[in-house]
Structure formats: structure tokens, C-alpha cells
Amino acid sequence: MPIVGMYGTLDSRSLENDMTYLTEPTFSHGTPEKCAVLLLNLGTPDAPTPQAVKPYLREFLGDPRVVEIPRLIWWFILNGIILNVRPKQSAIKYASIWMPEGSPLKVHTERQANLLRDQLKERAPDMPVEVHYAMRYGNPSIPSVLHELKTRNCQRILIMPMYPQYAASATGTAFDVVFNELTKQRNIPALRTVKHFHDHPGYIAATAQNIRDHWTLHGRPDKLVMSFHGLPRYTLDKGDPYHCECQKTGRLIAEALHLDTDQYIVSFQSRFGRTEWIQPYTTAVLKELGMKKTRRVDVVCPGFVADCLETLEEIAMEGQVEFKQAGGEEYHYIPCLNERPDWMQALSGLVLDNLYGWLDNPQPAQLEQSRLRALAMGASH
């Protein structure tokens, strides 16, 4: 029977949907609140095996932000075809780039988190900040790390996706998980997000210097290819800014390197399925350059700040084969920024800019006074 009140009608269906919040950690008055930075990246399977790759692909390709096909149709394609074929193929690729410590993406992201923590301690020694990382797909998961931050009394969290260019299928879906997880909490922390840093001066300078350092050791190419992860063309038509941000990144890097327009090209990799994706395709560019008998091509991937399957296998390995089989001569892959000191310095600066105003904590005497007042009013902790 509906219940009518000043806020409208409440029926039995509303009562059934009441939220049960996660249990809050025990709180003690006078405990200083902490500030945290959470680095987010795409993710990786736990091992380079079909058994580990399959659940990772199911989570990744099952994300409606990643594949915008009607759910029922896509469910049959994903579960009836792709997950029966692709895990074995992908496991072979992962095995070809796996590091002794694990997946390159996870290894580099963890190292970046540790180095960022050290940088922040050095640049802001009186303002302790916790630094953690999580993966949108796989482990450590975003919900598990947010739970850890909750137990550590992190009441201010900066969400830092490690994607320079914003895309709904990357940054957007990472935000989705964060926001959804917070709906389960009773005491929600203050939250800030970094949407993108595609034109951040420190990121551009570090990327340009990374390329210069490679050229100092190996000489310059006839053509520099800046390859970004691809997206379906309809994402651009529907308003996703990703393509435009990639173009701006490419232009700024070229300007920093003093390149003419005929000395570089921006392209897009990792096309999947039959629909049209944003162009030009990296594969087509490399084949065309090979057919023109280009003496040397260098490829860099400014859309990634850590090397991963897409850079180490698809670009460094498959790209080289495509270029040389088409008639090209010399092929160089320029690694991602990874743990470069100039990049870590730029990242710490970006983080500190976004933490502005959050790092002023009460002094111990103030905290003790707060604790005593709470106890006097009947608090147990």
C-alpha cells in the first residue's frame, strides 16, 4: 500500500531498493585526516595464460563504455565467439612482453606510484600524502583500493587517471567505477579528478626530451610516427574530445622538436571489428611508408605514459614486421615515459597543482583539543 507524505509517494518497490551502506571503520576523535592520490590505469591479466586473460577480457570488453553495441547482441558475440578464441591469442602476446616482476603496465604503474610518493615527500615534506594505484580492469581493483583508503582515514582523494587524452572509454569509465563505489559509502570523502593532461607543459616537455634522447643515441629518422590508441569514428561524431586532444598533443610535441609537417604524422592503432575508426590507421601508415622505401621510421606512443601490450607487442613488434615486409628498412620504437625523472617531476607538479588547498592539516594540539571535547560530550573514541 503506498505511503503518502510531504516528500511524495513511497511504495513497496522503493522500500525494496533501500541502500545498505558499507560499514564505516571505527572513528577516533582527534585523528588527523589524510590526503591521498590514486593513480588509475587500464589494467592487465594476472598472468600471461588463457585462464587469466579470459576473465580480464570479459570485464574489459563487457564494459558498455568500451563497446557501444546493443547489450544483447554484444553478449552473444562476446561470449559465443570472442571469449572462445581471443584469450589464447592474447595470452601468447602477453607472454612475449611479460617481465620477471609481472605485466609491464602494472610494473611501471607501481613504480610510478612509488616514485611519485618520493617526489611529493621531497617537494612537500611537511604535508604527507598517500599515493596508491588501481586498475580499471583486473587487480588491484578500484573498489579494493578505495576501501583501503577508507580504512586509512583518507578523507580527501585526488583521482589521477594516467591517460593524457580524455576518452569516455578510458578516463570516463574509470570515473564511473569511482563514483559508483562512493554511492555505497555513508561517509563520502572529498574528491577531485584530473580529466586530462594532453597539453600540460611538463608532459609535453618530457615526451619531447624522451624522443630527443633516443635520437641522440641512434640518430634521427626520416619520419616520426606518433601513434595513439584508436577509437571508433562514431565516438568523435558523438562528441568525444579524444581525437582533438591527440591531434593537439602531436602538434605540441612536433613544435617542441621543431619538426615540419612532413617530418611527422599522427596515427591511430588497435582497430577492432569492422566499423570505421578514427584515421589514419597506424598499420596503413607503416605499410605505406614501407612501400615508399622509407629508410627509417621511428614510432612513439604519446597516449601511454607506461609501456604495455599495445606499445611493446603491437607497435614495437608487429609494427616493425609490417613496415619491413612492405619494403621499409630501419624501424625504431621509442619507449614510453615510464619512470623518466623529468616525467616524474612533471607528474608531481601536476598532482601538487590539483592538491592546492588540501594539504593544510590541523596541528597536534588542535587535534588533541578536539578529541578532549568529544570525550567530554560522551564520545567513546
UniProtKB/TrEMBL annotation:
Task: Give the matching Pfam families.
Answer: Ferrochelatase
> Quick one: which residues bind Fe(2+)?
H229, E310
Coiled coil regions in record: none
> SUPFAM superfamilies of this UniProt entry?
Chelatase
Q: Where in the cell is it found?
A: Cytoplasm
**Predominant place of localization:** cytoplasm
Keyword set, alphabetical order: Cytoplasm, Heme biosynthesis, Iron, Lyase, Metal-binding, Porphyrin biosynthesis
What are its GO biological-process terms? Answer: heme biosynthetic process
- Which GO molecular function annotations are given, in alphabetical order? ferrochelatase activity; metal ion binding
Q: Does the keyword Acyltransferase apply?
A: no
Enzyme Commission designation: 4.98.1.1
Q: Which InterPro entries match?
A: Ferrochelatase, Ferrochelatase_AS, Ferrochelatase_C, Ferrochelatase_N
Q: Name one GO cellular component term.
A: cytoplasm
Listed under catalytic activity are: heme b + 2 H(+) = protoporphyrin IX + Fe(2+); Fe-coproporphyrin III + 2 H(+) = coproporphyrin III + Fe(2+)
Q: What class of enzyme is it?
A: lyase
> Which pathway is it part of?
Porphyrin-containing compound metabolism; protoheme biosynthesis; protoheme from protoporphyrin-IX: step 1/1
- Tell me which family the UniProt entry assigns to this protein: Belongs to the ferrochelatase family.
State its role.
Catalyzes the ferrous insertion into protoporphyrin IX.
Q: What is the name listed in the Swiss-Prot or TrEMBL entry for this protein?
A: Ferrochelatase
Q: What is the lineage of its organism?
A: Bacteria, Pseudomonadati, Pseudomonadota, Betaproteobacteria, Nitrosomonadales
Q: Which gene encodes it?
A: hemH
